[in-house]
Amino acid sequence: MEKEQIILKTRYFVRETLRNAEGGHDWFHIERVLKNAREIAAGEEVDHFVVELGALLHDIADYKFHNGDESKGPKIAREFLQSQLVPVSIINHVENIIKWVSFKGGNEEQEFSSIELSVVQDADRLDALGAIGIARTFNYGGYRGRALFDPQIEPNLNMSKEEYKNSTAPTINHFYEKLFLLKDRMNTPTGRKLAEERHSFMKQFLQEFYREWGHTPDWETP
Questions:
Q1: Can you give the residue ranges of the HD domain (predicted)?
Q2: What's the mean pLDDT in 141-158?
Q3: Quick count: other Cβ atoms within 10 Å of Cβ 6?
């Protein structure tokens, strides 16, 4: 098994598959997550091949763009890796990374764990934070036709997985329902450090947003 060749073929496969993807979940998102994963993995004892495959394939068929189907991504990844004659143990590991990497409301008990999943999960979550995270959040909100902000609609901090998947709340609510929760859910020291910096930037952004809007909602925390 030529690992470098498989990584190159995986890059090409993912880039082509996501050619027309929504701007926050496209090939550029994958590249950023891969970069984050490499940075985080440098400080951990990991299987770098699994980390890179997991980062490259983690959003190959995001359920948000496939009628909520969470099985499509793992299936596509499995079929591709089988075509590259990747060992079954590695395929199973990557498939589990894809199954469990997403937030999905943050209340679902994770039934699989590995340091490789922790690295890819942190890498993906970092791309939901900071300036890029803000841009991706508003891009997705526009894609779904959501309101920017409604002071009368309070964030739901205790959503079930299904409520999270079906939410149509204004984009600003997503900061509270997901983005601001990620800092304390990072798995690795490097992930936590990078998340702190990006979290602070998002808090500053919201302060300016409310100042320009002319209204700070009652449910905003100091």
A1: 26-129
A2: 93
A3: 19
